[in-house]
Amino acid sequence: MAEKRPQNLANHVRFDPPFHFFVFPVLVASWIVSVVFCALHPSFWSFWLIVFAAAVAVAGFKIRTYAIKLQDRVIRLEERLRLAGLLPDAMRPQIARLTEDQLIGLRFAADEEAPALVEQALAGNFARKEIKQAIKTWRPDYWRV
Q1: How do residues 59-78 score in pLDDT, each as one tens digit?
Q2: Is 91 helix (H, G, I), strand (E, B) or coil?
Q3: What is the pTM of this model?
């Protein structure tokens, strides 16, 4: 198995080649072809092909969105559990104040720097991007969708 490259802010975004480089382009191209076909050969069925191609494209995007939303829910739970073990007793009640966006950003922080980042996030109302930029020791997540 190939060695996994270290993750950081610059390279942590992940593409899913079958979706991003096959499914997505085919869905877009199919919709464009159906519009051109309808313009050249107007009929109920050619119009229906546009509607059908649009419905398939929307379904493809919604399916992807559902997977990402589910992943975000799991990350939220995982980070709350992790922070409950990392934060001092006095800070544990503050976990509930963290937003979903902040929890998702904190998942990349190493255990040692997570408590300080939680304090910064709550004090400065940091969003996901600012939290990720503040991380010094990146904790990779190779299981993302």
Answers
A1: 988 998 998 899 999 999 99
A2: coil
A3: 0.73
